[in-house]
Amino acid sequence: MQAEDSNPPDGGYGWVVVVSAFMVMGLTVAVLKTFGLFFVEIQQHFEELASTTSWITSVTIAIFHLAAPVASSLCVQYTHRAVVITGGLLAFSGMALGFFGLNMVWMYATTGFIQGLGISFSWTPAISIVSHYFSKKRALANAIASAGECAFASMFGPFFQWLISQYGWKGALLIIGGLQLHICVFGVLMRPLASSYHLEASYSETETPAGKGASRIDKEDKSPIIHKTFNWMLVRRPEFVLYAIFGILAAMSFFVPPLFLVPLSYSLGIDESWTASLLSILAMVDFAGRLLCGWYANLHVTKTIHLLMMTITLISTSLMLLPLANNYLSLAIFTGFYGFFFGTTVAVHITALADVVGMPEFDSALGLFMLIRSTGGFVGPPLAGLIVDMAGDYRAGFYMAGATLILSAGFLVILDRFQQRKKKGSQTRTKPEKSMLPYPSFYLLKHQ
């Protein structure tokens, strides 16, 4: 039985976990993406400035990223199931307490801090456990799970608007909190995988015929201990650092296009109703991009890191072309290209992280990556806004995002070269020698 469980099943109950993760993505990140519908309602209720009200979403996003290492650490010490259930309870509590709407500080603490903590504790283990259940089909499984964000976001827009019109923004928050309580149900379905993930790890680079037994014992004895602690020392590994820098630069770009797409549309004189359709196009092609790229990655025709380089290059190209649009049709086409290639990138970037650090360190790596990447998300929009103010044109923001993505692709190239050199060095050191004995084999045969 132990031998059977030593590798990820790559199917079976794993698909139940994927569907559960799909639902968790929808009930967490999709809620965050459509929370802007409450912005005006809350602002008018408290009679506050837009900048003051926007801190609710800012706090949620900040806690979502900052709490990721904590969520990963808890996954390592306990189980992914337990952390997801905790996240569901926190997300529900944040919305339910927000229903009372006492003052703006109360909103920061409830729908901001507690909700952000709930999203982080739900999202991080959900996406992590999918990678544990799959190896060969990991890219496809991650793509399907992450697509829940797009599927739910496209439905939540009109649904949340209807809830607000029927029950007011406070009543809508309470109902959404009730929906998020279902995260606990899907968390229960995330059954811990009784696998020895450390068996996936490759043999020691310095393995020799005499050292094989020692290497195997070393794995069996030490790996379980590693899995019980969060590995902060990943920041000392060059490959992780390079991937983290890519993540920072990519995050600086990813938050910019959705921010300036609507203002750019207005500046071109496009009607509000047509502008709203651009966001729908963005969500639909994003969904398609995730599924198609996940399917292609599952064929293992292209190395994951190379596929990621391609998608990043295509996103940057589409962002550089998008400002050339001068009417609705051209803007919709370029928006579609951007959304599709964004979806392809999201589909494989978690799989690429697993390939870079290996599954034994994946939980720790995911938490650290989310934490480090958050700096790009915080810096990118203000920097793009500054550039737009200086240029006096919203197009400048898209050029900035495209250029930053090109720079991020450069770090992926460096990472790939580093891994190739490391692999060649390992192969050179571990080449089996024809004879490890002090005498030639024919000498021994002669004297037997």
Largest sheet properties? none
Instruction: Write down the secondary-structure element order.
Output: HHHHHHHHHHHHHHHHHH
**CATH-level-4 superfamily name of the largest domain:** MFS general substrate transporter like domains
What is the highest CATH level, the class of the largest domain? Answer: Mainly Alpha
Strand content: under 5%
Count of helical stretches:
18
Q: Judging by the overall fold, what is the CATH architecture of the largest domain?
A: Up-down Bundle
Shape: globular
Quantity of strands, as a count: 0
- Average pLDDT, rounded to a whole number, is 82
Helix content: over 70%
How big is the Rg?
Answer: 24 Å
Low-confidence stretches: 1-6, 196-227, 433-448
The SS-based structural class is: mainly alpha
State the distance separating the first and last CA atoms.
Answer: 43 Å
The name CATH uses for the topology of the largest domain is Growth Hormone, Chain: A
Number of domains: 2
Short description:
This protein folds into two domains: 10-197, Up-down Bundle (Growth Hormone, Chain: A); 231-425, Growth Hormone, Chain: A (Up-down Bundle).
Structure description:
With 448 residues, the protein is mainly α. The protein folds into two domains: 10-197, Growth Hormone, Chain: A (Up-down Bundle); 231-425, Growth Hormone, Chain: A. It has helices at 14-33, 39-46, 50-53, 55-66, 68-77, 80-98, 104-133, 138-180, 183-188, 212-226, 238-254, 256-267, 272-298, 304-321, 328-357, 362-391, 395-429, 441-446. Helix 4 runs parallel beside helix 7 (104-133), helix 5 runs antiparallel to helix 16 and helix 13 packs parallel to helix 15. It is globular and about 70 Å long. The two termini are 43 Å apart.
